[in-house]
Structure prediction request, 169 residues.
Amino acid sequence: MSQLQKKIERLARQDGPRLGFGPVQREKPRAMLLAVIASSGKEAKAALKDGADFVVVRAATVKDAAKVVKDVDGDGCVGALVSSLDEAGATALRDAGSDFAIAVLEKTAAAAVDSEKMGHVVEIPVSSDEPTLRGLAPLSFDALYVGDAPGALTLAGRLDFVRAATMTG
Prediction:
């Protein structure tokens, strides 16, 4: 299980009431994880040091992403956002220390996805059709990446996010 998946599960878990007597001081549960998109090892290290839950390395090629991930050198939860991913690319990222990979659904080889070795986040348009969204649920990806928001979020845009999250589980 990837570190990213563990963080997501910890966030979703609801702690029950504690038993016993005495004052109970509870922190308000967090509503989301903070991710930073970085393009260099320096940016990634700074983001993790400043409290980011995880960093996504965006690079032009898998080779470039693997180099940046390796530069971070296990300082925290780091993954890579690449335009396409094959089995060799997944191996290179994993060997560099990447916890997860993000790649476009249509450009990800099935052999590149092995959840026992590395987490996987699939990139989809938030407006994907219903059969595609429902088909993703049993594939057990760590999360969905819907890309950069095109400005201020509207109610219709929020509804698209809820629809995608609900259908994919």
